[in-house]
From TrEMBL:
Residues 227-236 have a biased composition (Basic and acidic residues). Keywords: Membrane, Transmembrane, Transmembrane helix. The chain crosses the membrane at residues 20-50. Residues 272-564 form the DUF7075 domain. PANTHER family: EXPRESSED PROTEIN, OS07G0633600 PROTEIN. The keyword Cell inner membrane does not apply. This is O-fucosyltransferase family protein. One of its GO terms (cellular component) is Golgi apparatus. It holds the Pfam family DUF7074. Residues 215-236 are annotated as: Disordered. Residues 130-214 form the DUF7074 domain.
Length: 583
């Protein structure tokens, strides 16, 4: 008993009054250390999983707000059609409020009238078969009035002077226009053929107006510059114009869809000019063959850094198209930046060079002229730290470990508030947008649209439980009856491969699908010829990304637009329990 008591006393010795202070301090130290470790763990988890909203896919209606925002630069994956600079230019109807009306165009005597022959026009008797003088101001005014009267759903901003057409009774005339209910800041150009007749009483009338882009003689032509590359003339021949005002006071160029495209590669004119330049190139990395959104998000980071450093960006114009857009189902190399984006606008607005040409010049001259190379292999080295580099070329070299080898990582962290992505420099391909304009013109810019998403999402009932039923023909008829008037032109943009699926809608609407317009990209089309020229004479496939891009843009130009998510179904765009206030 005595032994057990002595053991207990020895064990409880630490609770003696003289030991309490020391023990309390030890316990507090252990508790603080535990709290610190738990805090570090929680912070690490949050930092690794936090993924803020991406400004690219939730754009502001005003480009100025977008360009000055300080939102996080982290990329969030999305397989939809990319947004480019023109999408961030608000339509701002005030800027387009001044356009050419019928009242602006004179009605000269003897033009489109049915008066008897007078002493003043006796000299035209017996000359009804003489060629029409398309340069006559009276003919010009006749054609302008005919165009304004025929195309009631567009606003005209400029008419170019008419030129002779394909025969003595034909004139070709071009104009710039915009749909009355246009939702983008773009302008469009059309040029059409007019058949003009002269009656026995010497009056002139427009007999017919040709289809979209039928007046090829009035199209702005390319001319050769001193370097031998194609270059377009500075402006249309003097005509009649009411130009749009600046967008919200900004001196920003507007896309003009339908103009001749000059996307020849810029060249360095001499060894001395090459040596005096400053350049930035990105090499390697894991961005290759990713989605188009990923590609552009990274490319815009590189372009932003080049502008910040006041350097020329060296571009790899080749693109690897991700398998989600290819008919083969595998990633496809050998695509060209100019198939998808407006390189002419980019090279006119920023300093860029083709990588192949640059490396050829570099290999010729860098040793001879002792041109310096500054290599950067850590994306955490910010553009701000490179601002004082004097070497001719800065090369950012990216490794093989994802995601640290993504180009866009350069624009994260402290850089995001300093280096802005210059969205206004990158527009969609005007060749693709010209197909969009052609489709809309064939519908006279007077149609409504519905975007119907089906495909894999409709088959995945676990993530989208109601989508298949909500996009069935019966449900579509029920939903659209209160939204779209009977008999309207209805453009259906969809990933449903069998368009006969929508045949029940034909009883109420005049339905239209992208494949009705295949002649716009087939082997006889202008798009086919021009893209083949870019591709060393080899034909270019109208691939999945191009199809989705054109389909979406045509839908976006409908007077009324019905979307799948929010309008047709309550399912969330990204699957169950992912809905937000903006989707």
């Amino acid at each position: 008993m005595m032994s057990r008591s002595s053991n207990l006393l020895s064990r409880s010795g630490s609770f003696r009054p003289e030991n309490l202070g020391q023990n309390a301090m030890a316990m507090i130290g252990n508790l603080c250390f535990t709290i610190f470790v738990v805090g570090v763990l929680i912070f690490t988890i949050i930092a690794a999983t936090y993924e803020p909203e991406d400004p690219l896919f939730h754009p502001s209606t005003k480009m100025t707000n977008f360009l000055t925002s300080k939102s996080n630069a982290t990329f969030k994956a999305d397989d939809t059609v990319v947004r480019t600079g023109e999408d961030f230019l608000g339509p701002n109807q005030t800027a387009f409020s001044t356009f050419i009306n019928l009242t602006d165009v004179d009605v000269p005597m003897g033009i489109g009238l049915t008066e008897s022959v007078t002493e003043d026009n006796l000299d035209c008797r017996g000359k009804t078969d003489d060629p029409i003088d398309c340069t006559d101001p009276d003919v010009f005014h006749l054609l302008m009035r005919a165009a304004i009267e025929k195309f009631k759903d567009i606003h005209f901003f400029r008419f170019g002077k008419p030129v002779r057409g394909s025969n003595d009774s034909s004139c070709h005339m071009a104009w710039r226009f915009r749909p009355k209910e246009g939702k983008t800041a773009s302008l469009y150009k059309d040029y059409r053929s007019f058949v003009v007749s002269r009656s026995e009483n010497c009056t002139l009338d427009v007999v017919s107006i040709g289809d979209y882009h039928s007046g090829g003689n009035a199209r702005k032509r390319k001319r050769k510059n001193k370097g031998g590359s194609d270059r377009t003339t500075a402006k249309l021949d003097e005509g009649f114009e009411k130009a749009p005002q600046k967008i919200e006071g900004q001196d920003i160029a507007l896309p003009v869809v339908g103009e001749a495209v000059n996307d020849s590669l810029p060249v360095v004119e001499s060894e001395s000019s090459f040596g005096s330049g400053k350049y930035l190139i990105y090499s390697g990395g894991g961005d290759r063959c990713k989605s188009m959104n990923h590609y552009l998000w990274s490319f815009m980071c590189a372009l932003g850094e080049a502008q910040y450093l006041n350097r020329t960006l060296i571009m790899d114009l080749t693109i690897c198209l991700n398998k989600i857009y290819t008919s083969s189902g595998v990633d496809e190399e050998g695509k060209d930046f100019r198939f998808y984006f407006d390189f002419e606008h980019l090279k006119d607005s920023a300093s860029v060079l083709d990588q192949v040409q640059f490396l050829s010049d570099w290999n010729k001259w860098h040793k001879k002229d002792r041109l310096g190379l500054h290599l950067v292999e850590d994306f955490r080295i910010t553009p701000m730290k490179l601002s004082e580099v004097k070497d001719t070329l800065i090369m950012r070299k990216f490794g093989s470990v994802e995601p640290d080898n993504y180009w866009y990582r350069v624009c994260e962290g402290e850089t995001e508030s300093i280096v802005q992505r210059p969205w206004h420099l990158v527009w969609k391909s005007r060749r693709l947008m010209d197909i969009v304009s052609a489709v809309a013109s064939r519908l006279n810019w007077d149609y409504d649209s519905v975007h119907v998403v089906r495909g894999e999402k409709a088959r995945n009932r676990e993530m989208w439980p109601h989508l298949a039923e909500d996009t069935s023909p019966e449900s579509l008829l029920s939903t659209l009856q209160d939204k779209i008037d009977d008999g309207r032109n209805l453009y259906i943009a969809t990933d449903e491969p069998d368009t006969s699926f929508f045949d029940p809608l034909k009883d109420k609407y005049s339905t239209h699908f992208l494949d009705e317009y295949k002649d716009l990209w087939d082997e006889n089309s202008e798009w086919y010829a021009e893209t083949a020229k870019l591709n060393n004479g080899n034909p270019v496939e109208f691939d999945g990304y191009m199809r989705v891009s054109v389909d979406t843009e045509v839908s976006f130009r409908g007077k009324k637009q019905i979307e799948t998510f929010n309008d047709l179904t309550k399912d969330c765009k990204d699957g169950i329990n992912t809905c937000t206030s903006s989707s």
